[in-house]
Amino acid sequence: MPKFYHDDEAWADIAPLPQDDGGLHPLAAISYSDEYSEAMGYLRAVMAKNEYSDRVLGLTEHIISMNPAHYTVWLYRANTISEIGRPLQDEIAWLNPTALKHMKNYQIWHHRHTIIDALGSADGEAEFISSMLEKDSKNYHVWSYRQWLVKRFDLFDKPEELEWTHSMIESDVRNNSAWNHRYYIVVGGREGKLSVELAKQEIGYTQAAIRKAPQNQSPWNYILGILRAAELPKSTLKDFTCEFADVQRPEEVYSSHALDILADIYAEEENSKENAAKALELLATKYDPIRANYWNYRKGLLDQPNIAA
């Protein structure tokens, strides 16, 4: 049932402020429901009075249920919580089911940042995130929030964080968000630099994942990122990439991504430009023809000195 405030004695002292759409005959007035229009009128009135109270919290909750993307309502709710000293855990308890109803709402996540930051604790957030990812394992908002938690509470070196990321990759080796989060933990927590020893561990880990799904681009991107962070050459992967691509056996290519890396490796080797050209030709004509122009462009670069494919 719609909820109205004009016949509620608790709001008898408030005269709602109507929205100014630009005169009596606005050019493009938005057709709000009567319920929403009235609730916003009361919110404008309490905002004009700088009122912060329990009834204002109830009002914002009502409006959010109708329009969870209204940033101003969320901001005023956050200010009200701060002013009246509402227990932050109570706000999280209300926010959890609200977030599950509106999983891709920017304002909800910004509000959660504000509350958790003020609370100063990430307790319970891992469980909440898991419940969100059960519904959508690649929800950008959830993964972005997880990264914020890691940075805010310095969780980079917590073994539980890496173990959780591993479990997400085990569940779906093609989950690019999980690979991205792993990179954020491993590399981001070390200011973009890796020791050779740690890099070798991550390379071994990623190679095992690639063998499960050689045409999955996510771990290939990850392993190249690890090489850059450790300042290791792509040739480190030469023997491994040859497991999935061999220019001498063009019918037995199991990963276009391996072929791409091999092209770069051959281009950097002396007397291997011909093999680099073969790899790029295979990509252009057989294994990734949709990007033929790109591969042919790379092939043309082989004729220029000191430029990798």
From TrEMBL:
Gene3D superfamilies, per the entry: Protein prenylyltransferase
Keywords recorded for this protein, A-Z: Magnesium, Prenyltransferase, Repeat, Transferase
SUPFAM superfamilies per record: Protein prenylyltransferase
A GO CC term assigned to this protein in UniProt: protein farnesyltransferase complex
Enzyme class: transferase
Keyword Magnesium applies: yes
Keyword field contains Magnesium: yes
Molecular functions per Gene Ontology: CAAX-protein geranylgeranyltransferase activity; protein farnesyltransferase activity
InterPro entries, alphabetized: Prenyl_trans_a (IPR002088)
EC number, UniProt record: 2.5.1.58, 2.5.1.59
Names of required cofactors: Mg(2+)
Domain of life from the UniProt record: Eukaryota
Cited Pfam families: PPTA
Family listed: Belongs to the protein prenyltransferase subunit alpha family.
Name of the molecule in the record: Protein farnesyltransferase/geranylgeranyltransferase type-1 subunit alpha
